[in-house]
Design brief:
By secondary structure, this protein is an alpha/beta fold. It has 26 helices and 30 strands. It binds iron/sulfur cluster (SF4). Iron/sulfur cluster binds at residues 9, 11-12, 14-16, 39, 43-44, 46-47, 182-184. This is Nitrate reductase.
Length: 731
């Protein structure tokens, strides 16, 4: 008799509810949860095939089922027991900490971990070890959105919700191909347009994606020119009297500086920088300011939706802040259908932010740089202090490992040897690092080859805890089947390791014994501790227990004790999360890309998602049917550029950046502008002949991408690298 377990899809930040069907200890099917407010029963191609990735014949080949040690670099791994594995890990970490201090170790996590996993790791690093060197692949995904919200609205809190799509008169979509990256959310956009054909959709994206194809106005701007576009739109709004001066006066600060910044950002100048017709910039400003009505006296709501095109940039914070500034300048925030709404890439990047799972954050949206916040967390955890030394962000941590400053790395649920930019740097770091632990569900990732110790973790269908989706909605993740082999839950591995580590640190006299610090017996116990840290904070969820989540279903934070349900929309009273309640404008000017094109490196390389694949394909790559949409990696180029280079479809080309090269078949894409190219981010070992500058083998598009990052958010510029392309002469 089949049973159904209510849980959440582990792929993207839409956070769809799923019902997992099981027979005994076997997952046999999956269907969308009709009661889940994120998807109301719908699932995309990835979500609807989840059960197939869990089939024993597939999972058995790919899964890591027992702890394993690699006796020497390059050698085969040997299975060992959990006690032996965790004792060795604790001993090696304790030795490094005793010799070189806590900042000689680092933890690199994932937006696919559950909130409870994240909380325990964060406490392990910042509370027990005493290092802020804890970062995550969310740094590659959402950290510019975090910095943009904090800089302008005062808190890392997306103010809108999915329901706002149907109330909007104008959707302004920037740097997001939601049709592929957030498919079930995009269904809402299609539904809203069907129900209200007068709704206007503007898409700013260098590529004519499926999302852009759906728009009333597509702005195919040059890569990296977003801030200039937004400033020119504000210039037009001010010139035409479309700004909301009353809202600016009552609810904001710093507008005069921004007014000065945009004074010379005329649509004519922006037209040149962005490569757009002046009339389209003016039209975009009109639609945004008036909510699609065309008349500021009949202002309808505008909702902006944005993602990696803004975030993955060497000035990602400026892009986010400039777009949020357009909402503040026009009063397009705090009411149904209006607001700046960042779409989260990963299933739990939000939950990780909530518990402070970045090197600059502490639990419940507290800041590492704030002494009072550090003292609050230290008191809560019962430790003498949280270290004041800033932690290393993702790129900084791997750079430090490549230089020998970080000697031991703990990597959980992510694949930096493929997914981080400048793969050559990351692989050098993993080679140089004395001790690399990889806690993973899959044994097949590129990073596994560098690990000294592999620890098997549970995954979707087995895990128990919570995740938060793009609209701040917290959903339960529930186990439908027992853990396979010797796999354990991520939080439990971290807690067990922490117990062993604290004993060794105490033996060495490095720290007092703290056996109680990570003494957890269930994810609910971790959840309740996390809830308590949020009391009085902007994301207060003191009222949200597991029992209430079971009873009410998924809820949006904040939900303080006594509040009967979650909070769909923020700032409806016009009071923002800043000390004086006023939102802040950012007056940063447009700045060029980190790496500009020139005669030697004449093409722009853009990267992004495919509709039917997820990240490094550990899971989706196990299913043949998910290759039906796109079967193999390719460099996409404008037909005009291909003709100029003497290339035909399918020709093999050597694509090189300053950091490495890759060999790929080339395919024409008539939607690309001249000198722009695109490669999907997912492919790894399927790449042909990738090499770094020293000739070492690399795999995937990140052989080419740059580690340059935004100085505020530290998010790298994965969306642009300057490359050259040569036809490969075959022997
Ligand atoms: Fe899963 Fe995202 Fe697809 Fe929903 S849209 S089913 S969360 S991959």
């Amino acid at each position: 008799m089949a049973e159904e377990t209510r849980s959440t899809c582990p792929y993207c930040g839409v956070g769809c509810g799923v019902l997992i069907q099981t027979e005994g200890a076997r997952i046999t099917g999956v269907r969308g949860d009709p009661a889940h407010p994120a998807n109301f029963g719908r699932l995309c191609t990835k979500g609807s095939t989840l059960h197939l990735t869990a089939a024993p014949a597939i999972a058995g080949q790919a899964r890591l089922l027992a702890p394993a040690r690699r006796p020497a670099r390059g050698a085969e791994t040997q299975a060992i027991g959990w006690d032996e594995a965790l004792d060795e890990a604790a001993e090696r970490f304790a030795r490094v900490i005793a010799e070189d201090g806590p900042d000689a170790v680092g933890f690199y996590l994932s937006g696919q971990l559950l909130t409870e996993d994240y909380y325990v790791f964060n406490k392990l690093a910042k509370g027990l070890v005493g290092t802020n060197n804890l970062d995550t692949n969310s740094r590659l995904c959402m950290s510019s959105a975090v910095a943009g919200y904090k800089k302008t609205l005062g808190a890392d809190a997306p103010p809108a919700c999915y329901d706002d799509v149907k109330d909007a008169g104008c959707l302004f979509i920037a740097g997001s191909n939601a049709a592929w990256a957030h498919p079930i959310f995009f269904r809402r956009i299609e539904d809203a347009k069907r129900a209200n054909p007068a709704m206007k959709i503007v898409v700013a994206d260098p590529r004519r994606t499926d999302t852009a194809e759906f728009a009333d106005l597509h702005l195919p701007l040059q890569p990296g020119s977003d801030v200039m576009l937004f400033h020119a739109m504000l210039h037009v709004m001010l010139r035409e009297g479309w700004a909301d001066e009353a809202f600016i006066a009552a609810h904001t600060q710093g507008f005069e500086a921004l007014r000065d910044t945009v004074r010379d950002c005329t649509p004519e100048r922006a037209g040149e920088v962005c490569g757009l017709p002046v009339a389209d910039i003016v039209q975009a400003a009109r639609l945004f300011a008036t909510g699609g009505s065309g008349d500021a006296a009949r202002r309808a709501p505008t909702l902006s939706l944005y993602c990696m095109g803004l975030n993955q940039s060497s000035h990602g914070t400026d892009k986010n802040a400039a777009l949020i500034g357009l909402h503040l300048a026009t009063g397009q925030i705090g009411r149904p259908g209006a607001g700046p709404f960042s779409l989260t890439g990963q299933p739990n990047a939000m939950g990780g932010r909530e518990v402070g799972g970045l090197s600059n954050l502490l639990p419940a949206h507290r800041d590492m740089a704030n002494a009072a916040h550090r003292a609050e967390v230290a008191a809560f955890w019962g430790v003498p202090a949280i270290p004041a030394t800033p932690g290393l962000s993702a790129i900084e941590m791997f750079r430090a490992a490549a230089e020998g400053r970080v000697r031991a790395l703990w990597i959980a649920c992510t694949n930096p040897a493929q997914s981080m930019p400048d793969q050559a740097l990351v692989r050098r770091a993993l080679e140089r690092c004395e001790f690399v632990v990889l806690q993973e569900a899959y044994a097949t990732t590129a990073t596994a080859a560098f690990a000294d110790l592999l620890l098997p973790a549970t995954t979707w269908g087995e895990k128990d805890g919570t995740v938060t989706n793009s609209e701040r909605r917290i959903s339960r993740v529930r186990p439908a089947v027992p853990a396979p082999g010797e796999a354990r839950h991520d939080w439990a591995i971290a807690a067990d390791f922490g117990q062993r580590l604290q004993a060794r640190l105490a033996l060495r006299g490095v720290a007092p014994p703290r056996p109680e610090l990570l003494l957890y017996h269930s994810p609910e116990q971790v959840w309740n501790e996390h809830r308590a840290t949020t009391a009085g904070r902007d994301l207060d969820i003191t009222g949200l227990s597991y029992a209430l989540l079971d009873q009410l279903g998924p809820q949006q934070w904040p939900m303080p004790a006594g509040q009967p349900a979650g909070t769909p929309r923020l700032y409806q009273d016009g009071v923002f999360a800043t000390p004086d309640g006023r939102a802040r404008f950012s007056a940063e000017p447009w700045r060029p890309l980190a790496e500009t094109r020139d005669a030697d490196w004449p093409y722009a390389l853009n990267t992004g998602r495919l509709r039917d694949q997820w990240h490094g394909m550990s899971r989706t790559g196990t299913l043949g049917r998910l290759f039906g949409h796109v079967a193999e990696p390719a460099l996409q180029m404008a037909p005009h550029d291909m003709a100029r280079e003497g290339l035909a479809a399918g020709d093999l080309v050597d694509v090189a950046s300053r950091r490495g090269s890759a060999v790929l078949p080339v395919q024409p894409d008539a939607t690309l502008a001249p000198a722009q190219t695109f490669v999907a981010m997912h492919w790894g070992e399927e790449f042909l002949g990738g090499r770094d500058a020293r000739g070492q083998a690399l795999a995937g598009v990140n052989a080419l991408t740059t580690p340059a990052f935004c100085p505020t958010s530290k998010q790298p510029e994965l969306k642009h690298a300057a490359v050259r392309i040569r036809r490969l002469a075959l022997p």
